[in-house]
Amino acid sequence: MRNIAVIGKNFGDEGKGLAVASLSRVGRKPLIIKHNGGAQAGHTVEDAEAAWRFVHHQIGAGAEYGTPTLFAETFMPDLYQLGKEVADFSQLLGFAPLLYSEKTARVTTIDDVLLNMGAEAARGDARHGSCGMGIDECVQRNRAGYVLSVEEVALRSETELQRQLRWMRQAYTKERAKSLGIDRGNPYFELLENDDVIQNYASEVKANIGLLTLVDANRAWLARFDHLLFEGGQGLLLDEDYEAYAPHLTSSKTGMHNSALFLEKRGLTLDEAIYVTRSYVTRHGAGPLPCETACAELPGVGADLTNQPNEWQGTLRYARHESMDAFFAPVERDKDSVQMFSSARDTKLSILITHLNETGNRLYFEEGGVSFERVEREGERRGIGVKAPSDSV
After folding, report:
1. 189, 122 in Cβ contact below 8 A?
2. Which residues, including other chains, have CB under 8 Å from residue 235's CB and lie 6 or more apart?
């Protein structure tokens, strides 16, 4: 078994879907493991010859090639959104993806999403840059002791699920909304009071839970696969512990941590961590962006079809990489952060650079254009491999 983590090196939107799909396509009997965040990911896989393109949110990027997906305990699935994603995938590809979930994965509820949207609306110009998908609110609710797992959704009847959601709304959500400044003037206040919202959510979620096969993903169960591919969401600079960019962060571990922990519990090791970056930098959402520049100032860079302007994150922003030291620093920091896990002590580190076709095989740094070969040499000096998509991932 060869186990690989695919991680965003910057603020997300680097090309993780490309990397995971490539590994899925060439690997024998792989399993994609979704382990952080939830439905806010947007990983694109496309086949120019077959003329299809799909943006993955919860389905593993590589399901097109028959690779199954596992929702790990640390993933927060949105079962309401999952139904549409599976339907769109099935219509495009002609078959349904195979989805497994650990029983203890925590579900993102409709009130989590509404609280998230309401909080961002209340912040006005001081928005955190959230996707509005309820991830932080799911984390906060669970920390407060109001837990809803995938297994609980599966075991409860629709009526019982409605009852639990109403109880959580009364016991937790109302007070949480007040603390976030969501009052009657907020566009999401009435939805948090509306019982039809709970009824509709419970009905859809009970219908969609059948899309998942719940498993005990122990070492014996994992032995049926030859490769474990950990598909990360967002990027290292948005990790919940990366304080330099607080509060514009995601509420999850975006680096090796979750993959190493998953493997540690099962006596397995992480063979390689592949950190993905564009030849330039992007950020979709509020928050600092060093060396920010207009897209027009980056020769060759074209329109992004996945990251379209939206209410929650605005327009995709562009930047150059900072110094060479800053380029490698997040990877080195991430490696240091997991040294407590024996599963990650001998992990090979690699950086995969995408979008080189746009920039003429150069990377855009603050100092100007830098050749891929120069970055490759610097990586070799630091013990970090540097790859292009044309290389064997």
Report:
1. no
2. 7, 8, 9, 10, 11, 12, 13, 14, 254
Whole-number Cα distances in Å, 32 to 173, 244, 271, 299, 381: 33, 30, 15, 35, 31
| Domain 2-103+216-387 homologous superfamily, CATH | Adenylosuccinate Synthetase, subunit A, domain 1 (3.40.440.10)
pLDDT tens column, 286-333:
889 999 999 999 999 987 766 555 565 567 899 999 999 999 999 999
- CB-CB contact of 60 with 68 (8 Å): yes
Distance CA 318, CA 156 (A): 46
| pTM to 2 decimal places | 0.94
Reference 272, options 2, 35, 16, 74; nearest CA is 2
Q: Where in the chain is the domain with CATH 3.40.440.10?
A: 2-103+216-387
Question: Strand, coil or helix: what is 281?
Answer: strand
| Pick from 182, 109, 164: nearest CA to 140 | 109
Residue 3 φ/ψ region, left for φ over 0, alpha for ψ in the -120 to 50 degree band, beta for the rest: beta
